[in-house]
Amino acid sequence: MKTTTVLLGVLALGVLGAPAASAAATPQCTASALTVRAGERVSPNVADQLFQVEFEASRACAMRGTLGDLVFHDPDGVALPIGVVTPDPAGAERVVVSPGHPKVVYIASKKGTAQGYPVASATFTLPTTAADRTVTVAWPNSLTGPARLGYVGDYFG
């Protein structure tokens, strides 16, 4: 009887410990494992434009931080002189993107009195150290800049 109780206790510890071990072992996200879309949202601040870059995963993967090397391009593919402001990397938390549980990076920019830059696409690197981490995404609207980035995280509102 005691042998069975100890064995069941060891098995329970192994099963209960497994999710934590697999969460820590979640591979870093790669561009080929994600579907990435950019969209415009209604900003809670009337003086800002608000955009989101959404990440859907075909398999669970992890990221930490924000978009790197973000460059906006016009319809001809020419890089536009839009400044980018990134948050302090020390404040970022590791997030897991999994099928059915997308994550997002919000990007805010002051609304301009003029038309803004005619942004057609954006390129950036994922916040990982994976070799396959460069993404190009169609952009939904013009942008005045500078673009203020948030961390990869959950949707709000």
Describe this structure in words.
- It is globular and about 50 Å long.
- Strand 1 and strand 2 form a beta hairpin.
- It has a single domain (27-149), classed as Sandwich (Immunoglobulin-like).
- Mean pLDDT is 85; it is low at 1-22.
- The chain has one helix spanning 2-24; strands at 34-41, 48-57, 61-64, 68-73, 84-85, 94-97, 103-110, 121-125, 134-138, 147-149.
- Strands 1-2-7-10-5 form a five-stranded mixed β-sheet, with no helix packed on it. Strands 4-8-9 form a three-stranded antiparallel β-sheet, with no helix packed on it. A two-stranded antiparallel ribbon has the order 3-6.
- 15% of the residues lie in helices and 35% in strands.
- It has one helix and ten strands, in the order αββββββββββ.
- With 157 residues, the chain is of the alpha+beta class.
- The longest helix is centred in the N-terminal third of the chain and has 23 residues, at 2-24.
SSE topology sketch:
Blueprint: H1 2-24, E1 34-41, E2 48-57, E3 61-64, E4 68-73, E5 84-85, E6 94-97, E7 103-110, E8 121-125, E9 134-138, E10 147-149
Parallel strand pairs: 5-10
Antiparallel strand pairs: 1-2, 2-7, 3-6, 4-8, 7-10, 8-9
